[in-house]
Amino acid sequence: MVPRLPAMNLKRLEIVGCGIGAIDQQTFDDLSENLEALHLINNSMKSIPVFGLMPKLESLNLDRNEISEVPENAFKGLPQLRHLRLQYNKICTLSNDALAETKTRLELLDLSGNCLSIIPSPILQGFERLMYMDLAENQFTEVGPLGFMQLPLLKELRLNSNRLERIAPNAFVDMPQLKTLYLRDNMLPMVDSNMIQGFKQLEVLDLSRNMLNQTPSFKEMVNLKQVRLDYNKLRVIDAYAFSANIKLELINLQNNEISKIDKNGFDSLEQLTTLLLANNSLTKLDGSIFATLPNLQNLNLHQNNISSIDNTTFATLPKLAVLDLSSNGLEHIGVGAFSKQPPTFYWLDLSNNKLKSFDKGVFDQKITNILLNGNPLVCDDKMDWFVHYMVVNQIRTSRPNEPEIKCSAPDEFAGVRLKELMIKKSSKTLTASMQRLGLDGSAQPNKNFLTNLFPGLANLGDIQNLGVAKANC
Fold first, then answer.
1. N or C terminus of the chain: which is more exposed, having fewer CB within 10 Å?
2. What residue ranges are annotated as transmembrane (predicted)?
């Protein structure tokens, strides 16, 4: 029991992790006149204290206690209360009159991490000023008709990490200002497109980690900025699933089972900068699916089943900067596939594929990073042009913490680092030429001679350390 505290001119009081089990009715009497924030976090209180009159208190935080109920008129003496946090307690039910005295002034309500199993609809409706409501980490299985209504200023609603299997089409009524809706980590097999489209101001929708097998339609949701649908069971992106979302910047579809994207699946998304499609089942890419994404910068296609790409696949992406094609089983890249990329394009991940070589003309303009780890590169004459391109443009082919790329074949170059290859081949060619001229065939060309022929080699460090000795001329 906390005794009556002495008079102090305090505006904020925090008692955190002190094991307090109860608060005396008179504990705060001499502080009540000026106190604006009271935080009694991580204690052992089993009930909400009787606070008496605190005319200026705006924020009350009772997180991480053992409170099991919210009695009627518990906050009657707090006429200015705007923020109420009851996170991680043991509240499993709410009486019909709980919170009634706060409905005209509360702006934030946090009941997350409790054991509520039924949406307390009558209690939660009619908050005139409520802007943030957090009901995450409870035990809800459904949101029934009119589950949330008459919340005219609500901007953010969190229902993530529950057990939701169903949301009624008319579950949300009169919530015109909602901007952020978190529904991730539930068990939803579908959501009604009309319900989603009813949120005219919605900017962020998180439906990740559910069991969705069909993509909702987000057509013409003009304020939408982020959609997260990762870790579901989606197989197809239907035509116009995303269409005319003029502010949409990010779509996350990673870790699904997507094998098909309709030609108009991503339609007229002028501000989209990030599209994440990693860990799906795509086998081929039609360049037309990217045709109306003029500002796309980051495209992740890691771990699909794409075996080849051609010169039209990414031709319509004038702002592309980062492209991840790693772990696809990629065997062939068509000539011109990366010859007309924008100057912004600096990162191409081709690691862990089945690439053996590159046809001349696959690359033209400089791409600062072309990651090639985990490919069985055959360093024959067909690869000479690429090695020259790589050396001249100082291309990085592995991350700083990874070993440098080595050739797999032919036998004479197996195990040779890709950046050494030109030196090895130059040395071999010059030695053969010297022998034809009747010079000492055991002598090898000196460093200055090679770097004069191939200036880019000067950037590779000490050529002697690459196995080239000075000739005794």
1. N
2. none
E strands in 62-165: 83-85, 108-110, 132-134, 142-143, 148-149, 156-158
- Name residue, tokens 């022998």: 435
Structure tokens at 167: 């949301």
pLDDT in tens, 322-346: 999 999 999 999 999 998 788 899 9
Prediction pTM value: 0.88
Contacts of 412 (CB under 8 A, 6+ apart): none
Domain boundaries, the chain: 188-305, 319-416, 433-466
188-305 shares its CATH topology with 319-416: yes
Residues in contact with 227: Cβ distance below 8 Å, sequence separation at least 6, in sequence order:
205, 207, 218, 242, 248, 250, 251, 252
Distance CA 425, CA 422 (A): 5
Contact 240, 267 (CB under 8 A): yes
Alpha-carbon span 379 to 372, nearest angstrom: 13
Distances 211 to 191, 193, 280 between C-alpha atoms, Å: 10, 16, 15
* Residues 313 and 341 sit within 8 Å (Cβ to Cβ): no
Q: Find out if CATH 3.40.50.720 is the number for domain 319-416.
A: no
pLDDT for 324 equals: 98
Indicate whether 448 pLDDT > 80. Answer: no
| Concatenated DSSP letters of 207-237 | --SS---SPPP-TT-TT--EEE--SS---EE
Superfamily of 188-305 according to CATH: Ribonuclease Inhibitor (3.80.10.10)
279 Cβ neighbours under 8 A, 6+ residues apart: 254, 255, 256, 302, 303, 304
CA distances from 265 to 241, 250, 268, 417 (A): 6, 15, 10, 43
Name the token pair of 26. 């008179």
